[in-house]
Structure formats: structure tokens, C-alpha cells
Amino acid sequence: MRLFTDANVYVIRFINPSSPMDQTAAEDPASTPAPAKGPSARQSARRIFKNAGALVSGKAAGGVLSLAYLAIAARTLGPTDMGYLVLAHAYAMIIAGVARFQSWQAVIRFGAPMIAGDEPDRFRTLVRFAVKLDLLSAGAAILLALALARPAAAFFDWPDAVMPYVYVYCFVTPFLISATPTGVLRLFDRFRLLGWQQILMPGVRFVGAVALWIAGGGLEGFLAVWIAGVLLDGASFWLFGWRELARRGLLPAAHRAPGERADRAWLPFMVKTNIVSTIELARSHLPLALTGGILGSAASGFLQIAINLSNLIAHPTNMLNHATFPELSKIAAAQGARAMRKVAQRSVLTAAAIAAPIALAYCFFGEPLARLVGGPTFAPAGLLVGLMALAQLLRIASVVLESGVMALGRAGYALAAQAASASLTILLLLLALPAVGPAGAPTAIIAGWVVLIAAYAAALRRAG
């Protein structure tokens, strides 16, 4: 079975190994494919948004369910207990983020050319290596979560009734680490399946929240429901990913074959992406945790309302990232950095144009939206809603540009850019939260995104 170097056939074979073009060329070894240009920037951008759209179809439903269960929790618990709930989940997410290797990026980055080059054995080796790192991460997450639970309780001022559920959360942090199966599903363009999988966790939480509302449940009940959602969500990723590998005959053996070795480039790449994702916590879960620790539980409840509302912008952005990185990786491998940069630029402009009107509406109607979701006691979240919407608008550009930088294999540069941005964000959080209150959190996040966008744009400009 031949590997064609022509860019167009290379991409077609990766996307669809049974392509008639591939079969025809294989049957006639003497034939040489006519030179052909790869897909244009417009065509590639359309493919990105098509894949993202498949993800959004499920994520949109999940977003609606998320707002619904958040509204029930907010109106049932009030700002303070709502804050305790979101801080417990933020704690678990921070621990998982620190321990987790972003092995999904390695599966795509190194797996794409393996699949294109018909190297199933090498791909199985890559998957086995990634799974081992996921298992090590899971064990480290449990130990770290248990070790820091008491200091976290003092910082967040958790009541004694919350602590048993916090310890249970410590043992379910591995289910927040499902990097390898996520990479497998993205690599093989299973975006529609990924989209519908996004409904699972919010669906569990919504059903549980409704049941608690009817039964008059309290904080402990909501914590149990949140934990159940994490368990089912993480388990489903592994089930779908393993099923996809089995369907394609790519399941790795339990033990390494004689002479089989991991590539030296894999571990350094994963270590760098792990550090990058850890630094990324400065703009995701760390602001919520610092807000609760510095200003009190109610302030974190206000910020969570703003985050969930702005996630109507963020969810499509996340799906764009999931769809962009695999596509940009293919373009960079087949057509070079210049073509990939054009696709990234077009994707940024299109996504920003779609999201800008929504962000503007949030700025004008932030308080009514906060009241609608959380009730009158959450009116102070109105300003945060508008600011978080602006932060999400900046995030759109950063997400696509980061995918371009990672597609070029420049994980080290991404690490430096993330570190600079995160350092500024954390510094501003520590200064702004005591000075201006909860609004300091989204303000610090916005400043961090601006720095990151500038760094990524400079890297892509130099590459092309």
C-alpha cells in the first residue's frame, strides 16, 4: 500500500482511506497523480466550521441544559451555598488540570501522519503510550486532591457538611482526565458523536437538579448530582474512544511488543502541553477559586452565573478549537505553514463576526440576564456578565491562533506565551479582586487574552 506525497491525495487518504482516487492510484502503480493544489483557505475554513457545527449541535443543547440546572441550583441554594457548590467543582477541575497530560494533542499531532502513512502499529504504540500517561495522571490527581483538601477547605471556608463530598470529588478527578479517547475521536472526525456526548453531563445535572427541586434537596444533594455527572461523562469518553479504535482495528495490545519503542518526541511534547494546560487554569478555574477565597463564597456564585451565561459564546468557541486543531494539523503537514495561516486567519474573522453581536447584547442586558437565571439575589452578577462576554470574544481569536501554533509543533513557544499571559492574569487577580471586587476577575482575564493573542499572532506571522 503506497503513501502518496501529492498534497491533495495525502489529505484525501487521511480523511477517507477508501477514496476512489486512492484506490485508482493504488491499482496503477505506474500512474502519477497530476499536480494539484490543496484545498483553498475558504474550503478548509468551511470544513473547520462544518466540524465545529457538528459539535455545536450537541453543545448548544448542553448549554441550554446548563443554564437550566444552574438556574434551579441558584434559586434553590442562594449565592453562598451556590458558591460552595461551584468551588468544590472548581477545586476538582484545578487538580485534574494540573495532573492531566494533554495526550489528545499528541494523538492528533503524531497520529495524523501515521494514519495517513498507513502505519497502524506505530499508531497503536502512540495510543498505548498516551493511555499510560492518562493512568499516571489519574493516580497523581487523586493523591494531590486528597493532600490539599484540608488547606483548600480553610481557604474556601467550606462548612463541615461539605467535606465528605469534597473527598468523594477527590476520587472522581480521574474521570475529568479523558484526554486519549478525546484525541482519538477528533482524529477520526467523530465530531457529531462528540457533539452529542456534550449533552451527557449537563443532562445528568439537569435531571438531578429538577429532582432535588421537587424533593426540597439542599447543598449536599447538589454536590452528589455534580459528582455523578463527572463520573458518567468521563466514562462515556473512554467507551466511545475505545469503540472507535476497535471499529478500525487499532486497539493497542495490553503489553508492549518486542522491539516496540515510543518516539523520543512524544514525551517532551506532552510535557510541554501539560504545562501549557496547567497555566491555562489561570483563565479558567483559578479566577473562580481566587474570587471565592478572597471575597467569599457568594462572590464565586456571582461569577459562576456570569461564566455560564457567557458560555453560550464559549461553547461554540470550544467546539471551534476541537475542530480547528485537527484540520490545521492536516493543512500544515500537506500544504505548509503559509496555507495553514490563511485558514486560521479566515476562521478567526468568521468566528469573531458571528460572536460579536451576542457579546454586545450581553454588555447591555447583563443584569436582566443575571436576574432571569439566578433570581433577584444574583443581580450583582450583571456587570460580570458583560465583562465575561467581552473576554469570550477575545478568546475566540486566541483559540484558533493557538491551534495554528500547536499544528506547527511549537508547543514550547505556546508554553512561553501562556506563561506570560497567565502571570499577568494572576497578578491582576490578586491586585484587582481586593480593590474592585468580583469585577476584577473578568478584567484580569481580558488582559491575559490580549497578551496571548499578540504572542500567537507574532508566531504565525514569522512562520509563514
Automatic annotation (TrEMBL):
InterPro entries with a match to the protein in the record: Poly_Biosynth_Transport (IPR050833), Polysacc_synth (IPR002797)
Species name: Amphiplicatus metriothermophilus
Protein name (record): Membrane protein involved in the export of O-antigen and teichoic acid
Transmembrane feature ranges: 52-72, 84-101, 133-153, 165-187, 348-365, 377-401, 413-433, 439-459
Keywords, in A-Z order: Cell membrane, Membrane, Transmembrane, Transmembrane helix
A Pfam family recorded for this sequence: Polysacc_synt
Localization of this protein: Cell membrane
Superkingdom, natural source: Bacteria
Any GO CC annotation of this UniProt entry: plasma membrane
Residue ranges of the region described as Disordered: 21-42
Presence of keyword ATP-binding: no
Topology in the lipid bilayer: Multi-pass membrane protein
